[in-house]
Amino acid sequence: MGFEKRTIKILVCVAALLLVIGAIIGLVFGLILPFRYVELEVWPRSDEYNREQPLIQFRVNDPGSWHPWYNRINDFLRAYETNVPEEPPRAPCSTLRHDQRVPSPNCERALSVWAPCIADNFYGYRDGTPCVFLRLSHIHYWVPEPYNVSLPLALPPDMPNNIKQIMMQRPAHVYGDYVWVSCGGEFSSDQENIGPLQYIPAGLPPGFPTSRLHTADRIPHSARAQPDPLPGPLIALLFENPRRGVLINVECRIWTRDILYDRSRHIGRARFEIYVE
User: Fold this and answer.
1) For residue 190, with 0-12 CB atoms within 10 Å meaning exposed, 13-18 middle and 19 or more buried, which class applies?
2) Between the N and C ends of the chain, which has fewer C-beta atoms within 10 Å?
3) d(CA 101, CA 117)
């Protein structure tokens, strides 16, 4: 009888241990998956795209130099073409210039929101003020934990002041949460050469509204391995006056509580180089 009781106790302990191990494994995977999947994409990309050193290079006075970048952006944005009104518009609604397209009130309004990062302006490449588009990908297994001021939790000391100010002006419990984005020169010399940056659409927060992201908490489990029915929202980064003839290293990153910033990895961050002649 005593032997049977000891056997039962051992089996109960083993079962409990297996449950604990299973919980730990689940926790570890829960921590690993966000880091594994979340990526900040940079567009346009060259035909010889190198993830480690993605370079955007062109000569302002040579249309044959910048026009391929204009075409690459058009190719990327065609998936976003629509006449259906969106509030706010997730991307420029047309890749045609004003002398090529049939005007539509909904689309013309959307283009005014995205100006000057639209085809009418050749996305700035003709004038040496290029636009670069950002998009989140690999987010179907991710549940973001956004920063906001609606919760009594501290904000990172290195978070840009403009993001903190917008959080105060647009509290999450009223306007919804965002996956915030910031960009700048990667090194001190780049910060001197990069010039003023503007996030487009200019009247909206610099980030991706979580309500529009197809993250794990917003889609059925069965849809996680499927492509998105609609492409994700974009942000454009406008270089207002980059120094000519200098290679500029640019770094962009997202800000959420669950993504730890690490320069040696690509999780939640992107870097690229821009060279305007």
Assistant:
1) buried
2) N
3) 17
**Mean pLDDT of successive 10-residue stretches along the chain, which has 277 residues:** 57 48 44 61 82 86 96 96 88 94 90 96 98 93 89 89 93 92 96 97 93 89 80 95 97 93 86 96
HEC per residue, the chain = CHHHHHHHHHHHHHHHHHHHHHHHHHHHHHHHHHHHHCEEEEECCCCCCCCCCCEEEECCCCHHHHHHHHHHHHHHHHHHCCCCCCCCCCCCCCCCCCCCCCCCHHHHHHHHHHCCCCHHHHHHHHHCCCEEEEEEECCCCCCCCECCCCCCCCCCCCCCHHHHHHHHHCCHHHHCCEEEEEEEECCHHHHHHCCCEEEECCCCCCEEEHHHCCCCCCCCHHHCCCCCCCCCCCEEEEECCCCCCCEEEEEEEEEECCCCCCCCCCECEEEEEEEEC
pLDDT given at position 141: 87
Cα-Cα-Cα-Cα torsion 162, 168, 169, 173, nearest 10 degrees, comes to: 130
Given this model, what pLDDT does residue 36 score? 47
Q: Give the span between the Cα atoms of 263 and 256, in whole angstroms.
A: 16
List of residues 6+ apart from 203 with CB closer than 8 A: 113
Question: Vertex 86, ends 80 and 91: CA angle to 5°?
Answer: 35
